[in-house]
Write a structure and sequence with these properties.
heterodimer, A: mainly beta, 6-stranded antiparallel beta sheet, B: alpha+beta, Phosphatase 2c, domain 1, 5-stranded antiparallel beta sheet, 37% helix, globular
Chain lengths: 226, 257
């Protein structure tokens, strides 16, 4: 499990995690694994793969290109953590290599008066609450084998096109359930309707807290929160 | 058959009247608050911008537009009658605004660090769906009494939950202005969602801290309960805030059911 960050002008815009065996697409489009809403990024811009302990960066025929150490790349290129990686105007960097000024801890303006509102980053969450979560497909078919929950507060799951995670199957509702982030973890909210959702074998008809390892089953598909 | 069931269980669609007003106040040279009323969509948005130069105004006006644009006719149609879809759509709109405003902040030096607090209300038939970050508030005035529906995401309020002795906190002059969850910075906790049923006669006030920090809750309640129209209510409240010194930008949106 490695955490990476996308940086623009010394400012962290997005963080995401990648696991061994995963390939994540980075782009502006909704169907990208890591979405960046910026016009300089193509819908499907680049992909990052972690295979056998090595990272590979690929350009997906983007308009503004993907660069490694200043050179535009085309096909998959193995990259080291200290290489200078650029996706359009963004810098892609492992989170462990972020320098202090890239994470804006607090910001205060030179206030016109004492009443200025300022933002301060709250204390870090205790280790037991923090953690990286994904939804992994154990059985059945979905739009992706592993859905990364890092930095996402709400996920819509179902057979409909507007879902963040699309599950195929005749008996899957267009909107089947939601996974939402809350204090210290995630919860599942089934959508009201006829079709059933099961967590660890028990039918769920209202919001319940989930823990790592829980199995969510709907029709022929099983997902694991890991 | 289905139609008979629908009539039995159909929710009453409350008729709404609404108005908003925003004022720079007596001290600030610029107004960095923004608001939007999308009356036919029953969607109400209030944001209080922060940041150097005029960055606060950029952040709040961009945010208000992003939220409004997110609720397309297709999305609204898909949401109708489903509290879970509405909650998801609200949280997603905040996520979207956060990503876009963060990226904008990185594009120019003078926008660096900009952000805003935000409160969004959506009324589906007779149910209020609320989502917020920061210390922009929503109040409900019902049957003569007032209730603050949102809890401020500020160090003062969050520490109050941890400590029973609040005298030390109350003495801290900046405490209430230090927000911990805003558009423009990664959310340490998700945007806060709340919903409740509304009844005919209920009145809602969405406002920035420039209003709620200068007018007492008792006065807010009185004005909201007694005003003839939402426009009268917000107009009077903005006046009162200015009379109290108007140290900050003042914005209020009133919705009468």
């Amino acid at each position: 499990m490695e955490e990476w960050a996308l940086i623009l002008n010394n400012r962290v815009i997005k963080r995401f995690t990648i696991e061994e065996g995963q390939t994540l697409t980075i782009g502006r489009g909704q169907d990208a694994d890591v979405t960046v809403d910026n016009s300089a990024i193509s819908r499907q811009h680049s992909s990052l793969e972690l295979k056998g302990g090595t990272f590979y960066l690929t350009d997906l025929y983007s308009l503004n290109g993907t660069k490694v150490n200043g050179k535009k790349i085309v096909s998959a290129v193995p990259v080291k953590k200290r290489d200078h990686l650029e996706i359009g105007k963004f810098i892609l960097k492992p989170a462990e290599l972020l320098v202090d000024e890239e994470e804006v801890e607090s910001f205060s303006t030179s206030p016109e008066s004492m009443d200025q509102t300022i933002f301060v980053k709250p204390k870090a969450q205790p280790k037991s609450q923090a953690g990286h979560y994904s939804l992994v497909v154990i059985d059945g078919q979905a739009s992706t084998e592993r859905f990364n929950l890092s930095g996402i507060d709400s996920v819509k799951v179902g057979s409909g096109d507007s879902c963040d995670l699309i599950i195929s199957g005749f008996f899957v509702a267009r909107t089947q359930f939601f996974i939402t982030r809350g204090q210290g973890g995630y919860s599942i909210i089934p959508n009201s309707g006829l079709r059933r959702v099961y967590v660890n074998g028990k039918k769920v008809d209202k919001e319940i807290r989930l823990k790592k390892g829980d199995l969510i089953k709907v029709a022929g598909t099983t997902l694991k929160l890991s | 058959m289905i139609n008979i069931f629908r009539r039995f269980f159909s929710r009453k669609k409350l008729t709404l009247s609404c108005a908003g007003q925003s004022d720079p106040g007596q001290v600030r040279s610029k107004n960095e608050d923004s608001y939007s009323i999308l009356a036919e969509h029953r969607l109400f948005i209030v944001a209080d911008g922060m940041g150097g130069h005029n960055a606060g105004e950029i952040a709040s006006s961009a945010t208000v537009k992003i939220i409004g644009d997110h609720f397309t006719p297709e999305r609204l149609a898909a949401m109708q009658g489903s509290p879970q879809e509405i909650r998801h759509a609200l949280v997603k709109s905040f996520e979207k605004a956060n990503v876009i405003v963060s990226a904008m902040a990185a594009e120019k030096d003078e926008w660096r660090g900009m952000g805003c607090t935000l409160v969004v209300a959506y009324i589906d038939d007779d149910t209020l769906h609320l989502c917020h970050v920061g210390d922009a508030r929503c109040y409900l005035v019902s049957e003569g009494s007032i209730r603050q529906l949102t809890s401020d995401h500020t160090t003062l309020v969050e520490r109050r939950r941890e400590f029973s002795d609040t005298t030390e906190l109350a003495a801290h002059p900046q405490g209430r202005h230090v927000v911990t969850r805003v558009i423009g910075y990664p959310f340490p906790e998700p945007p806060e969602y709340y919903s409740c049923r509304l009844r005919e006669g209920d009145r809602l006030l969405l406002c920035t801290d420039g209003l709620w920090s200068t007018v007492t809750e008792k006065t807010l309640s009185g004005v909201m309960a007694n005003a003839t129209t939402p426009a009268d209510a917000v107009h009077y409240l903005v006046d009162l805030a200015n009379q109290a010194g108007g140290p900050d930008n003042i914005t209020g949106v009133a919705v009468f059911c």
